[in-house]
Amino acid sequence: MKLARVLLLISVATGLIAQTPTWDTSGNGMLTGQYYFRQVTYQLSSPVNGALYDTVSLYGTVTFGTIPGAYSMNATLVDVQAQQMQSGTLTGTYSIAASGQGFLSNPLSKGDSIYGLVNAQGIFVGSSTENLNGYNDVFIAAPLTTTVSGPSTFKGSYSLAYMDLSSDNPLYTVGAMLQMNPDGAGNVGTVGVAAYVGQNGSAKAVQSLPNVKYRFSNGAAVVTFLNSNTALFTGDYWLYFSPDGNFVFGGSPYSSDLLVGVRTGTGTPNLSGLYYEAGLDQDESTLSAGYANLDSFYGSFSANGGNIVGHQRLLSFFNPSTENYTYSDTYTVPSNGAYSSPAMNYVVGSGIRIGSGIGPYLGISVALQAPTMSSSLSTTGVFLDPTGIVNAGSSAPFTAGIAPGELLNLYGANLASGIQVASGVPFPTTLGNVQVMVNNIPAPIYYVYPTVLAAIVPYGVTGSIAKVQVFNNNVPSNTVTAWISKTAPGVLTQSANGLGYGDVVHLDGSLVNAKNPAQIGETVSVYLTGLGAVSPTIADGDAGPTTQLANTTGTIAAYIGGVAATVGYAGLAPQLAGLYQINLTVPAGLTAGDNNLDIAGPDAYSSECLIAIGPAPASSPAAPAYRAVPHALSRREAIVPKLR
């Protein structure tokens, strides 16, 4: 179905309601009143070379909550390839949980939803990562300011990330970072542009565009560039503002491009805490082979002390299905807020981070600080943090969802009256007068603290949504919803926070680290959680069997430094509860030193931790026979409460 044609049905379709599962709607009040929005949508012609069949933008105003859980849009649709513009009214529904996570029905594709998150200022960012019609998109909506915006609203130093795929050809995809200094009186002056174009790879184009002006129309800034045959930006671009003016987004009213920006210089830039994000990437490093790879995502990340642990719900049409991607990263934010990774340039402002890809890895992203999870229950009652359900091994954020058999850390307040650890296996479903229910199934509990507890997702939890609730002395907490996946791999790490060296051991049970690295051709064991269902099945909370081993039912793969490692065993760790074990052979061709250790399930990919690899031998020894190796560390040493 060609998406641009949907708007033709506006006069007769008064509610494109997505078929979605039941979801917590206690956060619907986070989206209330009138918003500006922009949605860009890119539909592939075929997953062969990355060329696009259609590029569409939809923008205008949307009003949330006039009817509970419903929205109404006054929208303009631009179909670039058909050279058509249409305007009209669209209606739909939305469901937002207490965490700010949720979805709204996609106005351009009946039956689909835009999944995403609402930040502390009520800004929604998301993407239709599960869709029926073969497209990638990004949707952003920000509340209109309570006062009428005018020229003085747009003043200061702004950095803006830009991406344009409207040519429908990856050779001409444009990614750029712009620097603007509007004066609050209609003048921007000279705009600096640093851009990458698909066919030019890593070659950067730098331009200074003079005499840029702006005016305001209906609360939006209309930024006008001089017409030029050589300038990357000409004509009008519309910008919408967050209520505090620190975040801007928009694009051309006649194209399907996207701008996201942050005002800098308003204070010391600080990247810390939980952020919600969305974006697009187009990997053009493979253009010489005749194709490029487009993806879109939404998710979250936690930033602390220069380290990031993040999650993206990622849709790429060169993969068979949408997957959960968890990752780690490092950062150092200087006084001007600008820093880079190998593939992205970032700018950090007040509670905002924008990103622009470095050719040939083009992309655009926006991350916004999450709302503070507070409740009157947090001081007087049992409170489960809606963002506090995380993988006990990797500390991957709550948006990564949960999987049957996964060991979770649950954070909150008054979760238990004291500290208690299960004395043996199977783990009990009541510990210290505490119970955890997942879809009304009692979960085995490993330990309880007043602010954190660890529990195993019962194998009988099925469907797409999990409802999690804690009972302390029969007093219930609030109920928190989470998405259910087949797998949610999270490697335990020696630092117990998802970062650094993974919990990997040699056959003699000693830890793999810089002083005791793994060798090419050696078989090592990786300890993790979240690999999902096993066969033969075991009782919830029981230890992995030692005779007939419990293998994962889904295919599990492992990669070291990007090189596939042969997996000889993937299943429950013998004699341990809540843990899985992978036996893998270290592949040849690796660089000595620290390498990424990645684990892939059928619907998830984890790239967080490291493994130390020794120098390549003159000739690789034959790999020993695979066997399940009991964990040399005690469970208490391997998994400790990760207080945050």
Summarize the biggest pleated sheet.
Answer: 16 strands, mixed
Q: Helicity range of the residues?
A: under 10%
Give the low-pLDDT segments. Answer: 1-21, 620-644
- What is the fourth-level CATH superfamily of the domain at 490-638? Immunoglobulins
Distance between the termini: 46 Å
- CATH-derived topology of the domain at 490-638: Immunoglobulin-like
Any idea of the CATH class of the domain at 490-638? Answer: Mainly Beta
Which architecture of the domain at 490-638 per CATH? Sandwich
Tell me the quaternary state. single chain
User: What Rg, in angstroms, do the CA atoms define?
Assistant: 25 Å
Q: Give the percentage of residues in beta strands.
A: over 45%
Structural class label: mainly beta
Q: How many separate helices?
A: 2
The number of E-state strands comes to 44
Determine the mean pLDDT.
Answer: 90
What best-fitting shape do the alpha-carbon axes yield? Answer: globular
Q: Can you offer a commentary on this structure?
A:
This protein has a 16-stranded mixed β-sheet that branches. It has an eight-stranded antiparallel beta barrel with strand order 1-2-3-4-5-6-7-8. 1% of the residues lie in helices and 47% in strands. Among the domains are: 3-143, Beta Barrel (Porin); 377-483, Immunoglobulin-like (Sandwich); 490-638, Sandwich (Immunoglobulin-like). The protein is an all-beta fold and 644 residues long. The chain is built from two helices and 44 strands. The protein starts with 32 loop residues before the first strand and ends in a 6-residue tail after the last helix.
